[in-house]
Design a protein that fits this description.
heterodimer; A: about 250 residues; alpha/beta; Rossmann fold; seven-stranded parallel beta sheet; B: mainly alpha; 4 helices
């Protein structure tokens, strides 16, 4: 047994959204901390890249190509995975629309990925007893919609706020099995998600200057928080939203 | 897609858009700000089903410049 309280040795962890960004980095870091990883993502090629970067050849990592918004894909995923000690849900999408242009269609599209498909996977995992007693669930939320309310970010923010609310309800309900449920609320992190081009480079530089620690986050900044919440170091932590934002929301 | 219709849709984003025409250097308008820049991108998405980027708005000086940027992506 490791004396490192952050070790993930002996734990099997499912990571969604693992084809890129925070999910990819989390999967790799979990493997570096001794965990066995099941990586899930939509893009087969990029998921294979993540899979190839996992460390620990003595462990049986797995990869599952899955569009979480597709019911059949979800069922296939649930049926094929081993018993889990950790679940990290990183799949997400983003849009920037002022409120007057935030139509029902925009809300539906963002909520489908950020909220409904995330919540449905968690529901199925719990109902089918795929999460071991004493396990840990980590949902990637955002400071956007929970502590920071930037212009044009309302649709995304509302989906993440809904996710944080659900996280707390699950934390209470799952506690009887000692399954912990927490969220991480990152500020803006350098990932493909934020490089859509809606903001100009100049706007991004001005936005980045608002961060007290002087920069946007890197995927590893968030992955380290995930490792803490997955590990036994966080054994008494549930229902928490861990803000990792370079000080933005101070 | 006509320039007149585009100018009308553009002007509609402003409270005081009555004076706006194709040659207006729109970033000099008192109502112009970062929310307006996002609104222009959203209006183009809604009305023309075209995704323009922040850089397209940044590079445009007049409303007609924007019209041409949108037209180029139709």
């Amino acid at each position: 047994m490791s004396i490192n309280p952050f070790s993930l040795e002996g734990k099997t962890v499912l990571v969604t959204g693992a084809s890129s960004g925070i999910g990819r980095e989390t999967a790799i870091r979990v493997s570096q901390m001794g965990g066995t990883v099941v990586v899930v993502g939509r893009n087969r090629g990029r998921l294979e890249d993540t899979f190839a970067a996992l460390e620990g050849t003595d462990r049986v990592h797995r990869q599952v190509v899955c569009d979480q918004t597709n019911e059949e894909d979800l069922e296939r995923l649930i049926d094929g995975i081993p018993q889990l000690d950790g679940v990290v849900q990183c799949a997400g999408t983003s849009v920037l629309f002022p409120f007057q242009f935030s139509t029902r269609e925009k809300y539906d599209r963002v909520f489908e990925v950020n909220f409904f498909s995330t919540v449905e996977l968690l529901r199925l995992l719990y109902k089918k007893k795929k999460i071991s007693n004493g396990g840990s669930v980590v949902l990637i939320a955002s400071v956007g919609g929970t502590t920071v309310f930037d212009t044009g970010n309302g649709v995304y923010g509302a989906s993440k706020a809904a996710l944080v609310s659900t996280m707390k309800f699950c934390a209470k309900e799952f506690a009887k099995k000692r399954i912990r449920v927490n969220a991480i609320a990152p500020g803006r992190v350098h990932t493909p998600l934020i490089e859509s081009g809606t903001m100009t480079d100049e706007q991004i530089r001005m936005d980045e200057a608002k961060y007290p620690l002087g920069r946007y986050g890197e995927p590893a900044d968030v992955a380290h928080g995930v490792i803490y919440l997955l590990s036994d170091a966080a054994a008494w932590v549930t229902g928490a939203m861990l803000v990792i934002d370079g000080g933005l929301s101070i | 897609m006509t320039i007149d219709q585009f100018v009308e849709n553009f002007a509609d984003l402003f409270d005081n858009g009555g004076e706006i025409n194709a040659q207006t250097p729109f970033k000099e308008l008192s109502e112009w700000n970062s929310l307006m820049a996002l609104s222009v991108i959203a209006m183009v998405d809604e009305e023309y089903d075209v995704s323009i980027k922040g850089i397209d708005v940044q590079n445009a000086v007049t409303v007609e410049d924007l019209f041409n940027a949108v037209k180029g992506k139709l």
